[in-house]
């Protein structure tokens, strides 16, 4: 009778001979693929000549093989990197802040300023027209009324001196009185001109003052906007620094654990290799002993 055994990590012919109660030489003879008794390979299937006890031996060997199929203990427990809850919370805070980033500055005074600039740049040069000046028209009506009244008064007085009859003298005197008021009206023209020019320059000053006020208000709004952006950036930088510090600290701790695990793994792997080499040496010695 015979059974089969799938070679597991760490198996040697010496171990299999003890496990199944057969000699190393019988296992080698039953498996032509074994070229060197010192070496059998994980995953290979070996025929084990067990005689009549194949059932129990096979079951025991199968159970032992299942147990040995587990990876060495030092291969387990490898540290893995996983962000902590604190780091995740900082990341979420950064994402929230990024979504609240202030937009570009938009002035609420742009249209008003643009309109004023257009008015200032396109303002007509000063010119004065008596006929279109309301003040001149008021003065003209007033002086003409006074002139007519003076002309009638003078002509009336002259008629009284001549017994109530009109004369060329009365007409001349009345006309002179009327013209005196027209002369006074003309004397008001320079003053009216200056007043019109003052109104023109006052309108210019008004628009410039309004422009200055709008610019000041716009500058104040822009300063507030810059303060908001600065506060936002300070807050964002604060959480970025905290996130990077936390991430660096956690990754450093993970790296330290990984290095320690690797050192332990290398140690136990070397220890296992040394044990295998020792078993192979013992197997070779026993095989030589059996063949003597």
Low-confidence stretches: 52-69
Assembly state of the chains shown: single chain
**How much strand content do the residues show?**
under 5%
Output the radius of gyration. Answer: 59 Å
The termini sit apart by 27 Å
The number of distinct β-strands equals 2
Order of helices and strands: EHHEHHHHHH
The number of helices is 8
**Chain-averaged pLDDT:** 83
Which strand order do you get reading across the main beta sheet?
A: 1-2
What class, by secondary structure content? mainly alpha
Name the overall outline: rod-shaped
Tell me the major beta sheet: 2 strands, antiparallel
Attribute tags:
single chain; 292 residues; mainly alpha; two-stranded antiparallel sheet; rod-shaped
Structure description:
Helix content is 71%, strand content 3%. The protein contains eight helices and two strands. The protein has a two-stranded antiparallel sheet. The two termini are 27 Å apart. By secondary structure, it is mainly alpha-helical.
């Amino acid at each position: 009778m015979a059974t089969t055994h799938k070679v597991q990590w760490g198996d040697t012919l010496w171990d299999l001979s003890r496990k199944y109660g057969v000699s190393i030489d019988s296992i080698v003879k039953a498996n032509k693929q074994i070229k060197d008794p010192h070496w059998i390979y994980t995953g290979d299937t070996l025929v084990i000549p067990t005689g009549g006890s194949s059932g129990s031996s096979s079951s025991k060997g199968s159970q032992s093989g299942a147990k040995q199929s587990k990876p060495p203990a030092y291969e387990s427990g490898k540290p893995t990197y996983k962000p902590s809850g604190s780091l995740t919370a900082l990341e979420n805070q950064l994402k929230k802040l990024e979504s609240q980033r202030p937009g570009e500055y938009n002035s609420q005074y742009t249209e008003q300023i643009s309109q004023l600039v257009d008015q200032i740049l396109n303002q007509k040069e000063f010119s004065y027209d008596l006929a279109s000046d309301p003040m001149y028209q008021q003065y003209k009506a007033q002086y003409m009324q006074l002139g007519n009244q003076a002309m009638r008064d003078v002509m009336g007085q002259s008629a009284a001196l001549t017994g109530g009859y009109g004369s060329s003298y009365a007409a001349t005197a009345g006309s002179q009185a009327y013209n005196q008021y027209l002369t006074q009206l003309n004397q008001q023209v320079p003053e009216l001109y200056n007043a019109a020019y003052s109104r023109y320059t006052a309108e210019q000053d008004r628009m410039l003052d309004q422009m200055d006020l709008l610019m000041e208000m716009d500058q104040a709004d822009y300063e507030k906007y810059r303060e908001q952006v600065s506060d936002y950036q300070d807050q964002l930088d604060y959480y970025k620094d905290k996130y990077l510090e936390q991430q660096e600290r956690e990754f450093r701790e993970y790296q330290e654990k990984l290095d320690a695990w690797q050192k332990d793994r290398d140690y136990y792997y070397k220890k296992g290799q040394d044990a295998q080499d020792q078993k192979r040496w013992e197997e070779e010695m026993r095989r030589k002993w059996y063949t003597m």
